[in-house]
Amino acid sequence: MESMQMGRAFTLIEPGPVVLVTTNDGNKDNVMTISWTMVLDFSAEFAITTGSWNYSYTALRDSKECVIAIPTVDLIDTVVGVGTCSGSDTDKFTKFNLTRVQAKHVRAPAIRECLANIECKVVDIVTPYNIVVLQGIAAYFDSARGEKRMLHAVGDGTFTVDGRVIDRKKMMRDKLPNGI
Amino acid sequence: MESMQMGRAFTLIEPGPVVLVTTNDGNKDNVMTISWTMVLDFSAEFAITTGSWNYSYTALRDSKECVIAIPTVDLIDTVVGVGTCSGSDTDKFTKFNLTRVQAKHVRAPAIRECLANIECKVVDIVTPYNIVVLQGIAAYFDSARGEKRMLHAVGDGTFTVDGRVIDRKKMMRDKLPNGI
Hints:
The structure is a homodimer.
Chain A: E1 2-4, H1 10-13, E2 19-24, E3 29-34, E4 37-41, E5 45-49, H2 56-63, E6 65-70, H3 76-83, H4 92-95, E7 100-101, E8 110-111, E9 116-126, E10 131-141, E11 151-153, E12 158-167, H5 169-172
Antiparallel strand pairs in A: 1-10, 2-3, 2-6, 4-5, 5-10, 6-9, 7-8, 9-10, 11-12
């Protein structure tokens, strides 16, 4: 996985993929599946919705760190599996054969099998809405990976896979940040 | 467009489609393109990121109402066009041949050409992060529409179209709200 320019990291989240979020509680690593995510800013500020109903939440809140990992379609059963068991009684990295890669700035691990990873610091938690505000601080992209199609959770137990790409860069030139 | 159960409306936003958001400032209607959206709750609470850089923002903040309309791939040039001009000098409904449908609970109009429409009230604006918290109050879905594939903005001027659907309802049964 090569480093990715932080100013491009929002392009991983904006299309709305289901993501894996890793945490470390000071003792052990954990990973959860999150499909409620949003870009807040071109400068790699993101939001995710989560709360105490997720076992990872305590580690996220207390360590103030996580890694957002972007899985692709070949990982569908890992995504669903991670989302349907709990770190309270399961080592999900072992169960789902996920390879931890040590992150540079946070204790939570990156995931080798994912297309991209974004190391994040928790900036704030907007408690009335369970919105966790994250600042991306480093990003990595595996451009050598053959499968790059992301998954979109519909929320009813089905997932939509990325289909064809439509290019409107020329029409949108004036609306895009420099260098994107 | 038939009424859609409010408890299912999150399934329109969770997959991360680019959306059109209509407003009415008490005088005239406007519409903007928004790709930074997130589900906050199964009970149809949503977040969008926007701010004073969008002309619609004043109407959204002051009227405390909007409609989220979900466009499909056949509307790609409308989506990009709406997102690259301003209601300050353009009647976008006329320019892009969008048909207004009177909403039931808000002054902002629904859009006939879209796959679905969600009438929303502004619950809060989390100003440090430009997060507008919305409560969906009525939803409509055009099941007779042939084209149902949504668009996902990547953020670099390209858009990914919904591809194939993968069903994992059985694996996820225990995680889904009742009736979904």
